[in-house]
Amino acid sequence: MLCTIAIVLASFATGVLSASTSKPKPWGFFTNNTIFTTSGRESVTYPRFTQLEDGTILATTAYSGPSPPYFPIYSSKDGGASWTHVSDLHETQTGVGFTAQPAITHLTFPLGGFPKGTILAGGNIFGPNFTRIDLYASTDGAKTWKFVSNVATGGRANTTNGATPVWEPTFLPYDNSLVAYYSDQRDPLHGQKLSHQVSTDLVHWGPVVNDVAYDLYEARPGMTNIAFIKPINKWILVHERPIGNSSSYGVNYPVYYVMADTPLDFGSNPDTPLVVNNKTAPNASPYVAWSPYGGKLGTIVVSDADNMGVFTNQAGGDPAKWELHATPAGAVYSRAVEILDNRPDHLLIYGGDTFNGAAAGLHAPFSVTSLDLGRVLKASETQYN
Fold this sequence. Notes:
Elements: H1 2-9, E1 30-36, E2 43-51, E3 57-64, E4 71-76, E5 84-89, E6 100-106, E7 119-126, E8 131-138, E9 146-154, E10 166-174, E11 177-184, E12 193-199, E13 209-212, E14 222-229, E15 234-240, E16 255-260, E17 271-273, E18 287-291, E19 299-303, E20 310-313, E21 322-325, E22 336-340, E23 343-351, H2 355-359, E24 366-372, H3 373-378
Antiparallel strand pairs: 1-24, 2-3, 3-4, 4-5, 6-7, 7-8, 8-9, 10-11, 11-12, 12-13, 14-15, 15-16, 16-17, 18-19, 19-20, 20-21, 22-23, 23-24
């Protein structure tokens, strides 16, 4: 969370990190393929994507530098090998712009007068005295956008316990509704908690429901991300769990996960620390994906901010069965991981700026790495062969 605010508000020197210059093959494997490169003064963080039924990928990122800021939308129809700029998502309600934390998905059923296939996107707006999560829709493949609704509003961006902002949305179409998950500091009983709200028409939003809320006020669970594990018919929610300046397995933002029968019931289930061999833990801004590849239970893949590698579990989330495998993809703040629906052995990792690199003026391109998941699962913790 502190990384987000620092990256958005800081003034950076010029500099660009290099990405691969070789041309990737469609539906192939490649490392650090550039989606777009900034001029050197802007930063790209918090990459997000949605994968459409025809295999098209729409990807976006927070883009700090333009005034007002916006979310650029790019499209790939060949597994991330080539990309086309589709549009820029501008917020139209406050004039502040989309400051941070984009979210993008698509409707798998008609909802609220919008047809199946509608692209839904939004993010966080950091106003002078508010944070605001808004939802937009596109019915023409992300070419044009229309404001739909305000999901949640809180106080100004401030990570101090006792402040009241909202953060880090993610959207999930589920059971003829849209679920909006976010980090929530508005509850006086919690420094921060994870919440969700449900809409059956994309305009009106139901009550705030707790997904992860600790009795310890200082605990600040954050950065909800969710995947479905088909063989066991369970949903998994991953999140970071900082508590003051405490450390767990050598990290200050340890990653925890919750399993539930539906994506609406995380709050009634315990969460579990993600630890490898009782010694190694991911740190901060987790992202989770599931692939049917890798055995009868498939493979859960979790990314974090500090590791180039990914954490995997081929035992349905068994706490004793996590492994760490090296990858050539860069460690990036809030990088996203994706499994291609029509090629479940393809693991895509989206990259951008690191917190320290951005602060030093070393700006990286918005990029994607496509890896053979089978090869990843054979890699050691430190060596990708």
